[in-house]
Amino acid sequence: MGGLWKKIKKWKCFRSLSVRIFLLIMFSCAIPCVILHYGILERYMDNAINVRTTDVQTQVRIIADHLTTYNYLLDNSSEVVNAELSQLSNLYDGRVLIVNSSLRIIKDTYGISEGKTIISEEIIKCVNGGGASNRVRDNRYIEIVVPIEEKLDDSSSTLGVMLTSVSMESIISSYEYLKNRALLIEILVIVIMFGIAVLLSRYILRPFDKITDAINEVKNGFTDEEISVTEYLETERIGDAFNQMLGRMKVLDDSRQEFVSNVSHELKTPLASMKVLADSLLAQSDVPAEIYREFMGDITEEIDRENKIITDLLSLVKMTRTAADINIETVDINSLIELMMKRLGPIAARANVKLIYESRRQVNAEVDEVKLTLALSNLVENGIKYNTDGGWVKVVLDADHQFFTVEVSDSGIGIPQESIEHIYERFYRVDKSHSRQIGGTGLGLAITRSAILMHRGTITVESQEGKGTAFTVKIPLTYIAS
Ligand code: ADP
Fold first, then answer.
1. Which of the 8 DSSP states describes residue 285?
2. Å from CA of 383 to ligand 1 middle
3. For residue range 243-266, what is the model confidence (pLDDT) as tens digits?
């Protein structure tokens, strides 16, 4: 049964809501039809037979009493009784047999079996004191067997049997008539309900068609108006969800466009510098070797810068790809940070900045080693870059039972309050010229944030201008796959 239901559900047409509504309406109209048919019509037949049997039985019992009174079994010439018998058989289009205790037929209203012996189970039972009985024969007659009894003081003895068979023709013809009428009505109801179901299933789903049309209009670019189909709460909700999605896509599209124009701009800046340097070299003849060397050194710097921007862009693209690219392993975070600090040591030494590492706990976590190292290095590198001579950068690792935290604080220049909300934006730099001078691309924190989000972690920042900045990264110890 379950398998059949699954198979039906796979049919394409059955997956259509309008087909389901149609079937539901048809099904709910079929139930009353079936109940009416079997509950009333079929009961009618049984009921009519019962009524007829009781009627006839009552009359037969009265006549059976008369038979005893008129001693009919010994002398069947009583006119009163004969008249009653023929009236009974005429009334019900039936036949009456009077049988004595030796199973001989005394009277047959058809007049063909008188004098003959009748052997039938019901009659023998009745003669032997089995009482009255009745049954339906060949679906055409009701046979009623009633004993002819002589009442004694406190008992009675069976003198014979009265066998009456009455025709069921009138019952059958009323039943047939009713059945035909019912069938006609049922067909009529089904045809009407079919029409109603078709119209209703279409009518109910019309707002959904409207929504599909509206979405298609937007998809095909004919309009970018908001969708509003308010006929049902459900369609209103679909419309709202679609509008929200559209809004989000517009924001994404805008940010993508902005990103592309920023990328082009950032890539063009070093190129423009290189061109200026090269042009000025070309414009002069007999350029002294020192100038030539100096210009070529500047050009090399610009090439390095261009290279760094491209490397950062590639890292960012990698970070913003789907989570499928993440390579999760259980990593010793203490060693990861130690190694990172060691690698950044020379840069810090060059800037005369002290690197301090404090581990409060041994931490093992499920992370992507490469991405996390990149994220944390950017923070420490920023701490070094935006610091003052003789300053420090401190990294503190701690953990609870669910998360580990890495705090990267510095004694540097700090970030102005109004810039804090922008620092994770791509290409955003608080002080463009200063950042450029120290080799910033404005992509570092965007990369860091993406990497941390990939680990389902969070990053927060607190900063005071002139005093320093503290970034806190919080990442689950166990990777949560979405
Ligand atoms: P950049 O490559 O320019 O360093 P980031 O995305 O790493 O780009 O940082 C964005 C901007 O945020 C930086 O240009 C800098 O102005 C500011 N910033 C980031 N980290 C610090 C910090 N530790 N101290 C002060 N300013 C910072």
1. S
2. 8
3. 999 899 888 888 888 888 888 988
DSSP 378-431: HHHHHHHHT--TT-EEEEEEEE-SSEEEEEEEESS----GGGGGGTTSTT--SS
From 445, 448, 461, mutation site for ligand 1 pocket: most ligand atoms within 8 A of C-beta: 445
From the CA of 387, give the closest atom in ligand 1.
24
Which domains can be identified in the chain, with CATH numbers? 12-222 (3.30.450.20), 226-319 (1.10.287.130), 326-476 (3.30.565.10)
pLDDT tier at 482 (50, 70, 90 boundaries)?
low
**pLDDT tens digit string along 397-442?**
999 999 999 999 999 999 999 999 999 998 888 887 776 777 788 8
Q: Kind and range of the H or E element at 114?
A: none
Q: Helix axis angle, 444-454 relative to 369-385, nearest 10°?
A: 150
pTM recorded for the entire structure: 0.57
Q: Tell me, in angstroms, the distance from the centre of ligand 1 to residue 367's CA.
A: 25
Question: Is pLDDT larger for residue 3 or for residue 372?
Answer: 372
pLDDT of residue 468: 95
Q: Enumerate residues lining ligand 1, CB below 6 A.
A: 378, 382-383, 386, 410, 412-415, 423, 428-431, 435, 440-446, 469
